[in-house]
Amino acid sequence: MKNVLAALSIAGLSMVSASAFAGGDFEKLDTDGNGSISVTEASVSTSLTEQFADLDANADGELSKSEYANYEG
């Protein structure tokens, strides 16, 4: 039982760390600080540019934090 709890704790911490890292990237990419990433801001990353249309769920031409959370970079 202790091993299962330890494994779940480690998995949870890993997911939190990944989310925090992605959030930090979002802030760096949102260079104008408006809370979203434009196509122009995304252009610094080839992989983000390639995934942009798929990530932009509401097709507004910008990625919100929740849309960016699905980025596989």
From TrEMBL:
GO terms of molecular function: calcium ion binding
Keyword Signal: yes
Extent of the signal sequence: 1-22
Keyword Signal listed: yes
Keywords: Signal
InterPro entries: EF-hand-dom_pair, EF_Hand_1_Ca_BS, EF_hand_dom
Start and end residues of each EF-hand domain: 25-41, 51-68
Coiled coil location: none
Name the record gives this protein: EF-hand domain-containing protein
Source organism of the structure: Pseudoalteromonas piscicida
Native organism taxonomy: Bacteria, Pseudomonadati, Pseudomonadota, Gammaproteobacteria, Alteromonadales
